[in-house]
Model the fold of this input.
Amino acid sequence: MNSEVKKQLATLSMYERAILMFCLRAYFNSGNYTNKLPLGEMLPDVAAIFDADPSVNVFAKLSELQLTTANESKTAVKVFESMTYQKNGQQLVTVLNKQADLSSLRKAVEQ
Done:
């Protein structure tokens, strides 16, 4: 894991890091790149911000997180293909990027 990724991880808020860990664990347990995080139950204050204005990007650093691909090209790609909020059910829906080296990211996050 390169130092640039470690620097990016260090700038994440406690909430962003928890969301990232949730998404990675859910992916490695299910193999599903799409996760629905119950934001209303876990972080009701943050869900209220999204309810008031869904266009606000509370997790900007997380949505911009980049790392290299798992293949030989080692191109930088975003970790999340998309991150949207579903007001109905107060869920944060994330889609992990299939090209990202998620295994290496998981090791770095869990250290």
In short: The mean pLDDT is 90. Helices lie at 3-11, 14-30, 39-42, 44-52, 60-63, 102-109. The beta strands are 34-37, 66-68, 76-78, 80-86, 91-96.
